[in-house]
Amino acid sequence: MKKLTGRLKSEHDTLVSMTAIYCADHHGKQADPLCSACAELMRYSEERLAKCPYGQEKPTCNNCPVHCYKKEKREHVREVMRYAGPRMPLRHPWRALTHVYDKLRKVVHPRELRRARNRKRVENKKESA
Predict the structure, then answer these.
(1) Residue 65, Cβ neighbours under 10 Å: how many?
(2) From CA 89, how far away is CA 85, in angstroms rounded?
């Protein structure tokens, strides 16, 4: 699996921070910051982010028209975010602020992006011919 970079890494780090808040309050204290179930969810989220069709232009998950997660994982992440979201400004103010800023990003469906690339490719072929 490829390593996350840029915005994808930032998004994953924010999700890990939120999950740590949720896990500590719901699953108790343990040696690691996350219990095995939450750690597995974070591995899954990293895997899904690595395959995101938006790449570095990825919108926040709640604004995304593409659902990458399986239904049960999506519900678990939604539960984590609902709980940890209001607590983020107190524990991770910078991450919370950047996440709010990221929510303002305009979302274009991947099909629209692909159509635009194809139109550009056709125009370039016509110009070079």
Answers:
(1) 12
(2) 8
Domain count, the chain: 1
pLDDT tens, 87-115? 989 999 998 888 888 777 777 777 787 78
Indicate the residue type of 47.
E
Query: Which of 68, 58, 60, 61 lies closest to 113, judged by CA?
Result: 58
* Residue 1 counted as domain residue: no
Domain limits for position 35: 6-128
Q: Tokens for 46?
A: 């990293």
Cα gap 94→75, rounded to integer Å: 26
**25 lies in some domain:** yes
- Distance from C-alpha of 66 to C-alpha of 120, rounded to nearest angstrom: 24
